[in-house]
Amino acid sequence: MPSQGAALMARWFRDQTSSQRKQQSSLRQGIQSLSLLLLLAASAAAGSLFYLPLFYGLHFTFGLVPLLLAVVWLGLPAALITAVALASVTSLQCGHPFVFALIGAQVVFLSASLAWARRAGRERPALPLLIGLFWLLLGTPLTLACTLIGRELSIDTALLSLLTHVVNDIINAVLAELVLILVAVLQRRPASISHRDLLFTLINAGTLLPAATLILIGTRDLQYRLESELTQQLQLFGAAAEEMLIATAAQSPAPSALAQATERLESRLAQQLPQTAEPSIQRLPLVVAEVDDLAHPFAQHDGLQLINATGEPPINLVDWQQVRYRFSQPLAAIEGITGLRIELNSEPVIDKVHAWLRPWLVMLTVWTAIALIAAAWLSRWLAKPLQDLIAAAESLPALIDSGAPMPALPPSRIKEQVMAARALTAIGERLQASFTRLVAERDQEREQRALRREHQFMLDALSQAETGIVIAERTGDGDHPVRFVSKGFESLTGYTSEEMLGQDCRILQGTDRDQPERQALRAALAEGKPCRTTLRNYRKDGSLFWCTVNLTPVIDAEGRITHYIGVQRDDTERREALERLSANEARLLELTETIEEVFWVYELEQDRLIYVSRAFETIWERPIAAVCADRNVWRESIHPADREQVLLSREALVTGGHLDTVEYRILTPAGELKWIADRRFLIRDAAGRPCRVVGVAAEITDRKAVEKALWEQRQRLEQIIEGARVGTWDWRLQSEEIRCNDRWAEMLGYTLTELQPTNQTTWKQRLHPDDQPSIEQHLKAHLDGDTALFECEFRMQHKAGHWVWIQSTGRIVERSPDGQALRMIGIHLEISERKQAELELIARERLERELVALTTAFVGPTTLASGDLIQQTLAKIGQLTSADRAYLFLADSGTESFSNTDEWVAPGVTASIDSLQGIRTSELGPMLSLLTEAEAVVIARVADLGEDWALLRKDLERQQIQSLLLVPLMDKQGLMGFVGLDAVRQQRDWARSDLHLLSGLAGALVGALQRERVLADLRSSTERYDALALQSRMMTWEIDSDGIYTYVNPVAKTLLGYAPETLIGHKAFYDLIPEPERAALKAKAFALMQQSQPWNALLCPLLKADRQRLWTSVDGQPIFGADGSLRGYRGSTLDVTDVQQAERQRRTAEQALQHYAENLERLVDLSNRGLEPTDEAAALLEIANEALDMAISETGWRRPNKPYHRLVRIPANAAEPSGLAARAVTEALFADPDQLSDQPRLITGELVPKPIRAQGYSSLILLASRWPSDDSPPRWLVTQLWSARPHVHLSSAERELLRFISQRIATIQHEAQLAQDLVNAKERETIGHLASGVAHDFNNVLAVLDANLYFLRSFVSSSPADDESHQVIDEMTSVLGQAKVITSGMLALSRAGGVPLRPTPLEPPLTELSDILRMMLPESVHWQLEIEPGLSAKTSAGFLQAALLNLALNGRDAMPEGGELSITAQRKHWPGYPSLMVGDLSAGDYAIIQVSDTGSGIPEPVIQRMFEPLFSTKTQQRGHGLGLFMVREFVSRSGAGLTVRSTLGRGTQMQFLLPLA
């Protein structure tokens, strides 16, 4: 059976291999056939183009040779394709499509004949015979029919063409046979050439080719002779014509005489030539270019030219008939004629050649037929004896098998054939005798081979068995030397067969002899009995294994034990598994006894619990013995309401076999209710039948209580939400999905289904545009962690189109490990009614405030004469009520009329005040009646007024008034006037607030008018004095003995901002003195008062009502009573603030000038010290700090929409103001780049951001100075100064100083940058040339290494897969790839311009780089690569690999003791910070590749210089300062960016920012 299986496997393998080879062979054959077809088709077309001309229009072509080869080699389809190519070219040449039919018929005939021969089992017919048969049967009639019908040829010419085609095709067939024989000889394939075909082909070639050659030579010779004779004849005629023309010209040189002479010459020449010649003679003028010549010569023979219209040799007979001969005879003796040109048809010459060729072609055709027949007969006759000899040789094996004698061969006339027949007869007789002996030897060998095969099979079976088999010989001395071991024994013990032969198997126990099983084994050996035992054996390497031994004795024919057969099996795994099983059972038992859950086993067949863990007694409070003895104890402990469910679930588990978990209640003996979660598993026996159920029961009473509380709480929450009409939302930030309740959609007039899918877009589309910035600000603050809750009020569009106010409150409930917000939940509360109420309340309060303000203005001591207050009041009223016109009418004194004294009109409304003067009371009609009765006139629509209002209605309509509101002004005497509002542009319904506001104004006006009348006299008396006081800004006053004001003139309002009434009786003079000077001045004043001394020019500061400081000069005199006691003081206060300020400004200006001069001296001295740019900038900032009293200052540069880059800060170790707030201030400065100017900006007070004020800074100064370069967009130098002291003003000197410092810093930084750029350019140029040369030379070396590696790989490809040479070559290939990456980076240094960028998937180059790094990194460095799937960027893969390799190797060098090195690639948003060390990018999304290490970190000074060329902190042997320079060049030239973050002792992270593809 094993041998049969091996045979089947071998056969299957051979079949598979054969099938694969057949498929491969079929593919190769298809490609070869296609190539051969194309070659044959091209050869057929070329053979038709390049022909061998016989005579005029008749020639031999050779395109049929490839066609015949295609028929023989490739079959009919390929032959038809070749025929199309041949016929296409031939048709183009001859101009007749009949060739398609002729060649197609030829191909079909040949293919059919060859197919018939194959089906009949005959040899392939000779191609010349088939061609001849085709022309005999089909070709001749077909050619004659097509030639005579479609072409203008005579029968003789058509017959001549037919004979040419026949001979040409037969010669092509002979040539095709020669090609077939030549190909067979070159291929050297056995039996590829038939003797008969060879003879036939050679005979034909030897007879036909010479004959055709002779006819061709004869035809050429005849053509030459005929054309020579024609030339001589024309030359003679030309000489005679010359004499005749000379004589004619001598007699009469007139052109007509020459023309007649030419016609006579032409007639004479026509008589000498055949009629078909049609000669013509032309005189050639002096200028040959003027001759109208449309014919062109294409051949020439001794001055005789052949011409036609094209100038190309014709191909077919019809075109040759259009050819003419031309002969030119020069004439030099006749004036005006240079010569004669004689032309005649070529048809006479062609006819002569055809007449001569016709019999020869007939003879050649007959000769061809005879040659074909003779060659066929002769080749058959010569090959017949050889075929008989072959037939006799083929029958020889059958004769030998049958034992029949050799038959006599037929006689032959050829000597060699007779000798071959005799030799064949002798060979047959000897072979027959030898065969008889071999048969006998064969039978004997078969028997021996069968015995050996059976024996070998047994040995192979024992040897190949995986079980260790040992055959040991039994000797008399007690030893049992080993005579045979199987391969299984070798793999089991590690000993080879050579090492074990002759040894005793007890060496496997080594020194471990004290085994009871060994004694049993030795006893069985001594008794000669079979034995089975397990021993501890040891392999050759000393490792222990448990071995199960089966020992069987071998007994010979005499009954003696000669050998023992031992079968050994490695039982180590089974023994270890048993030990582990025992240990696991012990641990399981311990676990089940100690856990709080109840572990139980239920036997289905016995229908009882067979095991219950101890936790049962704790939970059920019943003994285990009771529940195991009686199953009803457990059943009755279940709550009656759950008992049936639990029992049914167990039955369902047994039936379905699925994992089941049941929750139910139990009752303890004390009646306590407990919840149980019972998880059950079904166990099946070996037959697959359910045998037991295993379960784990846990008490979940507490969990159930919590679930119930949560359910109740959820119910309450849902009821609260439903009752509060609150919309809830749940926002998943990464997917932008928002889950809402129905109320959320209902607030906007939608159902939740109408808004699906609900996401961030659904929300944003319905937000009010004005509210979006506020929402985004609140949302960003919450996402950044600045606020605990997201709280915002905004408007959303209702389905009906109006806006709904929403109050939204929410918070983040889930964040990612890196702190990114993942989920927010919150509520929406509609507050439209509250907002509307707030708006109405605000409007009402505003109206009340306005009314109070208006009435207050009239209550004060004001005058109405100027009308400004009234005009302002009317304008305010009109704007508040949205009226078109507001006005005041007062009764004219002494007349019964009213006049419009004041009027306000809205923009676009025509004023009417001029036309409303002196309106008589009779014109007011019923409106005056209502006003007289102190009633307001409210008219919503003037057009609806009744007939009694007709006159007034017309007057109102004339003024285009559509609505009217009037309120009377009443005093004790009656109607003083009225105030009113008009609606002109559209009708309106007046609101109660409008009437209320207008009534309040009316009351105020009445009071003001009355007070105006009462105080008119008093005002006129005091006007002069008040005018004088106002002009002098002198306040007069009186105070009592306590200093309290008893009188103050109105100048107090102008001077101090206090109304006199607010001071009189309420304030003392010293209450207006500022706190610092109050005590001293009060003491001084009261000291003078005690002495009754006057106050003379007492300089006293006062605080105005707006808390501004005012300097005054006070003069006062004491007032005495009748009794002489001091009653108080009377005096004046004069404003001298301008004098004091001028004095103070003078002193301040002197100090500032001195300070500015000192700072300028310091700046000049600083510029002469030759400091480094950074040090000089720091010194300049220090001067600015001292000059402006600032705590911190720094400067840096930036561009609009670009991040800020700091240059220097003073002090260097000062704590930076809140970064985010400081950045916000800087961003606000650059919010509008067009508004940037070279002027300092002072920010103080509330404008300073709260986080910065919280750090103690109360003011800052910003200055943006244009960088002195032509960059676009421009670069700005930003100088910032922070101070804890509030600054309220910057003097011009301070501004100029700061501008000078900023411009100086920008200049020195720009000059330093220009110098550094020049140095870098020189270094880059030098390094580029050096790198280019090194890289090119190194690439040459790498090319040699690459070629040698390719050679070595092909050389060792046949070696085993585990050969170390493969690993060595792979390592060398990896290192070579690293070297190529390095050279690509070096070449980047030598190239100018940018790096060629293309969309590049990042995963292939980074994976390749990872393979290189794994070969280079030590084992102590843990390497990790993470790439976001599908990530692509616009970059160069080779340059990127070189840059990353440099960073990775630097990270490796920073971790000499080992660490972690990683590269991550992902799509992320870069907000513009951290700032870029290299590159210039805008904030946005990029493909970010981060290289991180846990090394020693990079100090800040090194970070600032590490990208400089030739800068290195490594030793000379390990670093040359080009690696990071190459990284900088790659980033700069590829339009990328690079950030660097490093912490000393913790590691470094560098990020590439690549544009996304």
Question: What's the topology here?
Answer:
Layout: H1 2-49, E1 52-55, E2 58-60, H2 64-74, H3 76-94, H4 98-119, H5 127-150, H6 155-187, H7 195-251, H8 255-272, E3 280-284, E4 296-301, E5 304-308, H9 317-320, E6 324-330, E7 339-345, H10 347-402, H11 415-464, E8 468-473, E9 482-485, H12 487-493, H13 497-500, H14 516-527, E10 531-538, E11 544-555, E12 561-570, H15 572-594, E13 598-603, E14 608-612, H16 615-620, H17 624-629, H18 631-637, H19 640-656, E15 660-667, E16 673-684, E17 690-699, H20 701-724, E18 727-732, E19 737-740, H21 742-746, H22 760-764, H23 772-783, E20 790-797, E21 803-815, E22 821-830, H24 832-859, H25 868-881, E23 885-891, E24 897-905, E25 919-920, H26 921-924, H27 926-932, E26 937-939, H28 950-958, E27 963-971, E28 974-983, H29 992-1014, H30 1016-1032, E29 1034-1040, E30 1045-1048, H31 1051-1056, H32 1060-1063, H33 1075-1090, E31 1095-1103, E32 1109-1120, E33 1126-1135, H34 1137-1167, H35 1173-1188, E34 1192-1198, E35 1205-1210, H36 1219-1229, E36 1241-1244, H37 1250-1254, E37 1259-1266, E38 1276-1283, H38 1292-1356, H39 1364-1390, E39 1398-1401, H40 1403-1416, E40 1421-1427, ...
Helix pairs in contact: 1-2, 1-3, 2-3, 2-4, 2-6, 3-4, 4-5, 5-6, 6-7, 6-10, 7-8, 7-10, 10-11, 24-25, 24-29, 25-29, 34-35, 34-38, 35-38, 38-39, 39-40, 39-41, 39-43, 40-41, 41-43
Keywords: Coiled coil, Kinase, Membrane, Phosphoprotein, Transferase, Transmembrane, Transmembrane helix
InterPro entries: GAF (IPR003018), GAF-like_dom_sf (IPR029016), HATPase_C_sf (IPR036890), HATPase_dom (IPR003594), His_kinase_dom (IPR005467), PAC (IPR001610), PAS (IPR000014), PAS-assoc_C (IPR000700)
Domain Histidine kinase: 1333-1557
